[in-house]
Every structure is written in structure tokens, then in C-alpha cells.
Amino acid sequence: MKRVMKIALGVLLAGLVILASREIYVRNTTDEIYLVYTSDIHGHVLPEKHYDAATGVTWETGGAGSMSAYLSFLDKPYLLIDAGDIFMGTPEGALEKGEFIVKIMNDLKYSAVAAGNHELDYGLENFRQLSGKADFPFLCCNLINSDGSEIPFVKPYEIFDVAGYSIGVTAVIEEDIHKVLTGENAAMFAVRSASASVQRVADELAEKCHAVVVLSGLGLDGDKELARQITGVDIIAGGETHIALKKALMINGIMVCEPGWGLRYAGKIKMRLGTRGLVRAEWKLDKLLASQYTSGSFVSERIGVFENEDYKRMNIPVGSASMWIQRSSGGPVNPMGNLVADAMRIVAGTDFAFQNEYGIRAEIAPGTVRIRDLVAVSPFGNKIVTMKLTGSEIRELLEQSATKEKGLLQMSGLKMIFNSELPKGRKLLNVIVKNADICPEKEYTVATNSFLAGGGDGFVTFKKGRDIGDAGMKLLDATIEYFKNNSPVDPSQEERVTDIRN
């Protein structure tokens, strides 16, 4: 037995020696640099409070000011990049249609930013002007003009020198972009295959770079699928789904990560690089706590020249909230979804109202509620549209909603029961109106936002609507009226969307 133990101990010591020798070799033959990246900033550059319903903990991030402080603490050379959707979402993001956020990112010294779908919200000409103001390139390898020509101010990739190492960075945008862009704006653009486009760039960069990084707007599931389909890429730095991924995924030898949204976190990848390329990569999610990284006057000293009369209105109080109003309660109830849908239905005086889940962009803290708080909830400028739909057509909409492909529709005046584990086309079980099943043949009046009314997020059944009208009010103004008339607001905790999956 003693002899066996001695042998085992000897094997263990030999293994440790080998590991130590390898670690010494790696450290002697490689250098460490950082890849720092953000995603889905959506104009959230000011300090903000947040609430975790699961723990009851409130915490505060410092926005761009904290990001500046965070960068100043980095002790290795770094490359700072962003996966897109930089401005649409706050009053600050709306200043000069995104120009203020570009100014902030210039001063933070971003090296590259992916062209996200929200960079296109104001059209091609505004995007061109923003690119002219940026000290960094906008990247995308699969976005083109609708006529098939390249967009001259969007680069397919860029190669950066960081401490003597060449880092190739490309970017991709979601292939179903026409579900999130509507009307004339959608008609301006076309999208190529993400995997084929990335592979083409990766092949071109193979002999030029020590590491290849993809900034992705495909969402986490799309990033996983992309990783399975491509070679020659080291890291997929994802975004779009707003997930703060605490542990990176390794798929097909590719690191897949995502750093949350709204400058709540910075994603940092410690990269060990040598002559043969990337040897090691370690992912860390750093929370940009205002208490840890003091925000100072980084934003306030830059905003003055951008302020206009509309912006100065943003701090006007319109009411109050008695509690945190969240986009999700951590369970089946969506208090903010209920509130927005109720506000639309009240203004329009319709039987039902529908709001897209992804169109609700922020929570509201207890206490005084200002216009800016409601702009953050509904930043897209959508109008309220009314129409008539049959019960059968409404079931069609809710069957699509049950797939969760673009989030669950939030509603007022009815309830849906579904099973997300059933096959597509059979997920919807019941639609309840006043404690009875909805009547398939009956025509109902419906209110929704102009994005959905145009078939946004792929809900094309809204385009079947009849007697289409304008309620004469923007969605933002409807929520303002709701707070003026109902403060202190305690939103409905009614469960209107029920998933009975096993």
C-alpha cells in the first residue's frame, strides 16, 4: 500500500512539475493584453439605479463616467470595442440622433463599433453622418444596400495593433433585420448570410492576425449557432439579447461571451498571445458600480453644447411610482408590460391593446417619475394605432407570440394561456376575454404601437387590420397621461400571459 501511495504521489508531483513548466513557458513566450468590450449601450451614459427582484438588492452604475474610471485602472494594453446599438433608448441617446453618444465613445477611445440594427433607426443618411463624426470605424461584414452594393462607410473588418499583436475584428448583424426595421427604412438595406460572411473574412484574416474577433448582433442563440458553423475565429463578442453572461461558453473551440447592456458591465477578456496566435483567453464580467468607479463630471462636461429645448423638458415630473415597476417580476407577471398596454387601451378606448415586449426598454424606480424615465421605457417615438381584428386573427398573433421568437406580446383586456414546450403552431391553448374563450368570428377593436401595426418583430397579422386609425397620441404621451392620472402608480400585478409548460 505504501509503495502504491509513493507511486501515486510521484505521478502527482510529476504532473504538477509539468504544469508549472508549461505555465512558465507560456508566460515567457506570450504577452497579456485585454480585449474590453461593451454592447447595447442604448444611450445609457448617466448614472442609474437598478433593482434585483430575486435578491431585493438595489445597486447603482455610473454610466460612461464609470467606464472612463474603469479603463484608467487597467494595467495592460487593451483594445476597446462595442457590439452595437449605441444610442437609441434614452434622452441622451436622442441628442442629435446619436451624435452625443458618438462623442462620448470618441472620448472613451473606442477602437471599433459594430453596426447594430438601432444604428439604422434614423435611416441611412443619419448613419452616414454619425460615421463621419466617429473616430472609430463602424464594422459589419453582412450588411449591404438593398441594391446589393456595399455601404461605403461600413467596413467589413479592421486590423488593430495592440502591443505588437495584430487583432482582426469583424461584425455581423441579424439576418432577420427586416423584422426590426419597418417601412422605407427597412427597404434601404439587405443582409447576407452571417456564417458565410464571417467565414469569408476569417479566411482573409487567417495569415494576417494573431487573433480574430467577431462582434455579433445575432443574440446569444445566434452566436452559439454561428460558432458551430465557422472556423478561424477565436472569440465571438456578442450582444443584442442584453444577457450579462457570467461564464463564457466554449463552442467549436470559440469563446462566446456577452456583457449585458446599458453600461451596467464591461466585459474583459485576458488574452495571452504569442507568435502562433491566441494561447489562452479568460472572460470576466466587471460591474461598473458607481461606488467603485466614480463617474465624476465625464458626461456633464460634454453635454452642454448638445442640449436643446426638448432635452431640457426631460426632468419635468409627471407623477410617482409606489414601487419598482419592472419589465419582469421574475415570474409570469410583467408589471411594466401591463402598465404600457393599459395606458394604450385607455387612450384608444379599444377592447384590447398589445405592446411588443422588446419595445419596453427600462424599469422605473420608486418615487418621483420624470419624463426622462418614461422616455427610457418607450424611446422609439411610436404612435398609437387602432384597428379591427377578428378573434381568429388575434389567436394567430398570440400563437406567434407563444414561440417567444421576438418576445411575448404584452396585453390589456384579455389573457393568453400557452405551453412553450409544445410544437410550433400548437403552443397557444386558450385566449380568455371576460372569463370566456375569445370568439373567433367576432371583430374586436385593438390598439397597438405603430411599429407592430407595420408588422414589426414579424407580427405581420397586424397588417390584416381593418378600419386602421390614428389614436392621435404617441405611446410615450399615453404613459405620461397614465402617470398624471394614476399616481402614485401601483401597476397591475395581473398574470395575463401564462405558460403552463411541464
SSE blueprint and pairings:
Layout: H1 2-29, E1 31-38, E2 48-52, E3 57-61, H2 63-72, E4 78-82, H3 91-94, H4 99-108, E5 112-114, H5 124-133, E6 138-139, E7 143-145, E8 154-155, E9 157-162, E10 165-172, H6 183-187, E11 189-191, H7 194-205, E12 211-216, H8 220-229, E13 235-238, E14 249-251, E15 254-257, E16 265-274, E17 277-287, H9 300-303, H10 309-312, E18 317-321, H11 335-348, E19 352-355, E20 367-370, H12 371-377, E21 383-390, H13 391-401, E22 410-412, E23 415-418, E24 428-433, E25 436-437, E26 443-449, H14 450-453, E27 466-474, H15 475-486, E28 497-499
Parallel strand pairs: 1-4, 4-5, 5-6, 6-8, 10-12, 12-13, 13-15, 19-26, 23-28
Antiparallel strand pairs: 1-16, 2-3, 7-11, 9-10, 14-15, 16-17, 18-20, 19-22, 21-26, 21-27, 23-24, 24-25
